[in-house]
Amino acid sequence: MRPEQRDGGPRFRDHLFRPIAVVAAIFSLVLCILLILNYVQLERTDPLNSPALERLIERLGDNPEDTQLREQIRALDLLARRAYFSRLWQIRTAALMLLISVAVLLLSLKVLTRGRQKLPEENRKLPAWRGAYLARIGLITAGAMILVGGLVTAGLSHSALSGEYRQASAPGPEGAVAVGRADSGGAVAAVETAEQTEIKENYLDSEELQGNWPGFRGAGGVGIAYVAQAPTRWDGSTGEGILWKTAIAKPGFNSPVIWADRVFLSGADEQGQEVYCLDRNTGQILWQQAIDYVPGSPAEPPDVTEDTGYAAATMSTDGSGVFAIFATGDVAGLDLAGNRLWERNLGVPENHYGHSSSLVIYRDLLIVQYDHDGGSRLLGLDRSSGETVWETERQVLSSWSSPILVYTGRRPEIIINANPFVGSYDPDTGRELWQVECMYGEVGSSPTYLDGLVYAANQFAQLVAIDVDTREIIWEVYDDLPDASSLLAMGGCLYVPTSYGYLSCLDAATGEAYWTHDYGGSSYSSPIYAAGNVYWMDKTGVMHIFKAGREFVPVSDPPLGEPTWASPAFSEGRVYIRGEQHLYCIGE
């Protein structure tokens, strides 16, 4: 028996593997074309921002009592998220099928060419052979280009939807000591030391921090006001309960921050950027400082949307200095007398709304979350000089959320919500401690923390509860989620606001819904816990106050008399609210 008969021979291989190769090639090319067309469509339309949904939300703002319209928004929101996840699955499946079909094609071609006798050298010089050879090379090259294009666009499409990137963190400063280490199973091997106890008591949970309002949503950024009492009745139109109100020259959506007898906030427009300091008791403007002529600042301000503006990020203070950041990428440090200590430009952030991530102070560092399409990163700046102490690259898409700084039982952690992951970082070094890929879309809602669980959400994705020790998602919810407002966790309850007026109370341990209430007005503000109540402001300036707990018990709905987008600040029995034009102090 001849050798070619024992292994099937060239003719047998041709009959069996040539059709397989042809089918695999055609199938691969079709998949590539479909993936390329999908990417083109994805570039033209944003699957997470339906124009129809935006129009409905705008109509709801004009007709907040329209319950039927509200239900349409909820249904369309759910449909958009289901279509989003379906599209993501389709891209992953198509890419996998493409890889398999290419592998089959290559294997078939290898079998077909095995044992082929080479043509004599003189035959290779014939014009007919050379023409066929060149045609074959051209066909193979064109096919390879389409295949590579399909694989590349599959990766780009998946990245555009879910931001599936590799994480690469920059090392911390020389001599820094890491307090925890993630082992191969994700568990943290760390023991609380005397130094950690000192850090917790002096820099995270100190009475001084809790007695003031040092940043966005108070100490740690989790929305807890450590006050014994807070006002529940006022009317900005009549002046009832209003101790003072002061006009602020430049607009801004940031919240006031408070230290001792001073209140700070920032404002900016196309003409300039300013920081304001007011007397907490009288409302008198003690000083206002322009942040201008910053080295590297753009000659022309970037494009921002009206509902973000140039001063959306809340400032931060620790009683020795005050710090501000703007949509231009300018960040500055000032002393309490208004003198500029330092300023620098971090590069103009490349996002389509404007920068809004607020600042956090930790020990001698100013923590800056700088997530944008030009290169996301987390920075630790020296508070006294503005110089970079550490910088960590973050492989995430643009986000508009703010970091929180919490003590998780064994160490301090900076926790950030973005697309595609919720991540935790060591505030001393910037080293990534852990990440859980679970988030999608344009993330504007900040995370929160309670009893070993991190909570993070986004309107077009999901709400998750993450165990900080195991890195496991304990539970998840998909309905009635926040767009810009942030979560609040307190007393075993998780309060979940939405941009269209719904607010839900869930069991923080299980995600079980206790109640949902429709306030009928859209909101960008975040709920704050103060003196046994939860305060949540809508865009019209009405503060919705209800008892914190598993049953919905309304308290009052006092009006400010002025539109507002900012979250309130609390200090010594008073609440401070930034309206569209004024800063209000409310109390007795």
Would you write up a description of this structure?
The protein is an alpha+beta fold and 588 residues long. It folds into 2 domains: 3-114 and 126-162, no CATH class; 194-586, Methylamine Dehydrogenase, Chain H, CATH 2.130.10. The chain has helices at residues 3-6, 9-44, 51-62, 67-113, 127-162, 194-204, 207-211, and strands at 224-225, 242-247, 257-259, 262-269, 272-279, 285-290, 316-317, 322-325, 330-334, 340-345, 360-362, 365-370, 377-382, 388-393, 404-407, 412-417, 421-425, 432-437, 448-450, 453-457, 463-467, 473-477, 488-490, 493-497, 502-507, 513-518, 528-530, 533-537, 543-547, 554-556, 569-571, 574-578, 582-586.
The CATH architecture term of the largest domain is 7 Propeller
Structural class: alpha+beta
The portion of residues assigned to helices is 25-40%
Q: What's the shape?
A: globular
User: Which band does the percent of strand residues land in?
Assistant: 25-35%
Quick one: how many beta strands? 33
CATH superfamily of the largest domain: YVTN repeat-like/Quinoprotein amine dehydrogenase
Low-confidence stretches: 1-7, 161-191
Mean pLDDT: 83
CATH topology of the largest domain: Methylamine Dehydrogenase, Chain H
**Largest sheet entry:** 5 strands, mixed
CATH class of the largest domain: Mainly Beta
Count of domains? 2
Our Rg estimate from Cα atoms comes to: 29 Å
Strand numbers in spatial order across the main sheet: 1-27-28-29-30
Helical run tally: 7
Distance between the termini: 107 Å
